[in-house]
Design a protein that fits this description.
Arc Repressor Mutant, subunit A; two-stranded antiparallel ribbon; 2 strands; 52% helix; 13% strand
Length: 75
């Protein structure tokens, strides 16, 4: 069975960086991740999609603004 670390090691470098950034914060929006990593929005969305598909992170809707969501490490 593959654990989270092994799964992360076979992912793209951008997904690994996004995961590391999310480990340092409670929750971040896509724009905050872009600011932290300086990757393009397209690269961040790609990384987030792969991390969510691997169940390493979760998406949390913003209660105050339905257009925005947060991402955090899956506990």
């Amino acid at each position: 069975m593959i654990n989270d670390i092994d799964l992360l090691n076979i992912m793209s470098p951008s997904a690994q960086i996004v995961y590391q950034v999310l480990r340092t914060r409670e929750k971040l929006t896509t724009q905050q991740i872009v600011s932290q990593t300086r990757y393009s929005i397209r690269t961040i969305r790609y990384a987030l999609r792969h991390l969510m598909n691997a169940h390493l992170i979760v998406q949390i809707p913003d209660i105050r603004d339905a257009r925005r969501c947060y991402y955090t490490i899956n506990a």
